[in-house]
Amino acid sequence: MKQITRTPIVILNFKTYLESTGKRALELAKISGEVAEETGINVVVSPQHADVWQIAKEVEIPVFAQHVDPVDAGGHTGSILMESMMEAGASGTLINHSEQRMKLADIDAVVKKVKANDMVSVVCTNNVETSAAAATLKPNFVAIEPPELIGSGIPVSKAEPEVVEGTVDVIHQINPDVKVLCGAGISAGEDMRAALDLGAEGVLLASGIILADDPKAALLDLVSKI
Amino acid sequence: MKQITRTPIVILNFKTYLESTGKRALELAKISGEVAEETGINVVVSPQHADVWQIAKEVEIPVFAQHVDPVDAGGHTGSILMESMMEAGASGTLINHSEQRMKLADIDAVVKKVKANDMVSVVCTNNVETSAAAATLKPNFVAIEPPELIGSGIPVSKAEPEVVEGTVDVIHQINPDVKVLCGAGISAGEDMRAALDLGAEGVLLASGIILADDPKAALLDLVSKI
Amino acid sequence: MKQITRTPIVILNFKTYLESTGKRALELAKISGEVAEETGINVVVSPQHADVWQIAKEVEIPVFAQHVDPVDAGGHTGSILMESMMEAGASGTLINHSEQRMKLADIDAVVKKVKANDMVSVVCTNNVETSAAAATLKPNFVAIEPPELIGSGIPVSKAEPEVVEGTVDVIHQINPDVKVLCGAGISAGEDMRAALDLGAEGVLLASGIILADDPKAALLDLVSKI
Amino acid sequence: MKQITRTPIVILNFKTYLESTGKRALELAKISGEVAEETGINVVVSPQHADVWQIAKEVEIPVFAQHVDPVDAGGHTGSILMESMMEAGASGTLINHSEQRMKLADIDAVVKKVKANDMVSVVCTNNVETSAAAATLKPNFVAIEPPELIGSGIPVSKAEPEVVEGTVDVIHQINPDVKVLCGAGISAGEDMRAALDLGAEGVLLASGIILADDPKAALLDLVSKI
């Protein structure tokens, strides 16, 4: 667990872009593994559910699911069962991403189930208040992403530094064991540097790397100022 | 396509049982492949999303997704993208299963997208009226499953034959190209025989086989009276 | 019932605009009643749930709910119970509006419950295919509203006449008792005239009247070319 | 506001029982008003949306909505707009009831909107952890209701006193301004007494009173040991 949650951490959310589906997901995961090895930074990939199995077999870095449903094994056709993600090789999961918001009771249930299985939980939030709420549930990470900045190219660490600082402060008060990540609009090394300077211990990002002309160069730039 | 939709057809829904997750999903898929080869019956497996890739690589029989979300490629973290299922090896998908009900407009959108990609669509329904509605959307199959019988062990083909017959009749009027499957409570050869006698062209089933002590024997029994 | 569903019909959806909430909802309902009386046209208002009771007491024209939830009486805190809408004075309900899409099985359940209580059902749809599907469920009306035109000011009857005609044709084949309404972008008399010429028996509209400087004048204009 | 939130408080959730719909809702509200007047206890009623207007006109006690949707005024057909509830006479609302669970980000948005309009917020929760999370959002009340006890007749204050105490403790640490209510299975005076002894400042209840043969007697008994 310690190894998986080592910071600074970069979590690369593959979302459902064609550029990060199937074979291209595998390539992107391999590139991420190379950057992790070359720089020593803890890089995690979060591909689509169908790609977890193959990627987990072929790369050394941690693989996180993008979402798991709040269900236990049984009759839940079409749901994402945490046990299925684990067996496919996932060692953690995003929870409550802005594109997959969950009910409060379900976030709580999934965080507990993830913890009980020694997996890593990353609860995404949209502001300081919901970050505080998420922290009371004791996940490993809270990733603060103001929805209006997601995919905007405008880094939250520059546009709304008070949101990152406010989140770091309030979570420190509630539960200092919960680490803060910062998402939304992050892509360049200086954005990540700014995030770390504000007290975040890593970043959660997607399009800035995935849709880059040269994802490896983009990823290397991202971690260049750590 | 013709090959994939050849009838009589048996679609085995793996749901999210631990007995049909990961390695056990692969075993069950191999058993299903053996039964298909030994009997000549068109057996299709529908495993969890994370298991599609590996199963599609290792078995010859068709693999269907359990669900795809009504989204196109892009920013949809945690959603099931049809293109991802395709690249993983799925050649069709269940739609609107009783455990994953969808909005009418979304069923329409997914059926169209599945068709545009030469995949097979199986729309699940709960009664004669919704079966008629589903048939107007022109999927390959409509699978009628009265919810109260799902997982009950009481076969719809015996308990409510009028539902199967009524569905066959109304769909024949609306669109004779749409084939009717029959689900809910089916497990034995005589249940499948009864379904075919009522005009269904196959069955969609889950627990009766998956949770059987000897799934291969159960599957062989299921197809023994065709 | 005959009286309530008399055509041509104008259904005015109050949505959740402040301009049609509370006192202003009552004023708008009274204006609608005046236009109905002055012109002899069947005008129906569909206010927010909290306003149904007062409006139904004070106006003579029919009042429809904007939505009812697919639940029966019991423990469903926060849900909209059809029986509650009935007792408040509603004589019909919109179902599956584009801003309140429903699952296929739930549309079917609500249409049946509405019919069993001699209320009027208006199922909203987004294209020809879902209109056909809705018609198989035998509601009183299907209201076709291409989502991209809702609130656009561009009338569907002019921008996409083939969608209205196609809907009228397909519904006539499936069930000639189901009447077609036409929504999205309608506000002027010539738009309504065009809708009727295409085979629709009325319109479902909102912002074109509700947000007009002079709603009564707008409503009188709307029905001026019938 | 102070008057509305005065404790001990009894919030009577009318849910969607026929016994508490329309005329019977009004009767029940009047009975509740009588008990409030006779005993001096702060009794609040939470009827269905369609009944708020009439009840708020005819009784003196506070009326809370059962739910409001996380939307602002505009095009949201069928949604429950907070402004509509306010104009109908509601002075507060339940939020995230177990029968109407909400996404974390939406609970936050609704609590803020309710507060900005000087209304009272009651966030329902299912366990100690989600109660802590809810408290960080600074509602007026958190109502802890273990779902398995709702409607059971088994009072949480007796069956799971540690849940009530744990909630009181954790909320006291996070934000002592947030008051704790206790729900689920409460109906008799000793259950309410036990709840207050555990640190709760009131109760949220439904079937125990609404479905009683003599609701007034039941309500009088409930508050008899305060």
From TrEMBL, chains A, B, C, D:
Q: InterPro entries in the record, alphabetically?
A: Aldolase_TIM, TIM_sf, Triosephosphate_isomerase, Triosephosphate_isomerase_arc
* Single GO MF descriptor: triose-phosphate isomerase activity
Active-site residue list: H97 (electrophile), E145 (proton acceptor)
What the entry lists under Gene3D superfamilies is as follows: Aldolase class I
UniProt: substrate binding residues: N13, F14, K15, I150, G185, A206, S207
Q: Which Pfam families match?
A: TIM (PF00121)
Keyword Ribosomal protein listed: no
> Its GO CC terms?
cytoplasm
Keywords annotated in UniProt: Cytoplasm, Gluconeogenesis, Glycolysis, Isomerase
EC id: 5.3.1.1
Q: Is Isomerase there in the keyword field? A: yes
Q: In which pathway does it act?
A: Carbohydrate degradation; glycolysis; D-glyceraldehyde 3-phosphate from glycerone phosphate: step 1/1; Carbohydrate biosynthesis; gluconeogenesis
Query: Any one Gene Ontology biological process term?
Result: gluconeogenesis
Please give the catalytic activity noted in the UniProt record.
D-glyceraldehyde 3-phosphate = dihydroxyacetone phosphate
Chief localization class? cytoplasm
Localization per Swiss-Prot or TrEMBL: Cytoplasm
Q: What does this protein do?
A: Involved in the gluconeogenesis. Catalyzes stereospecifically the conversion of dihydroxyacetone phosphate (DHAP) to D-glyceraldehyde-3-phosphate (G3P).
Task: Share what the entry says about its subunit structure, partners included.
Answer: Homotetramer; dimer of dimers.
Family named by the database record: Belongs to the triosephosphate isomerase family.
Q: Which protein, by its recorded name, is this?
A: Triosephosphate isomerase
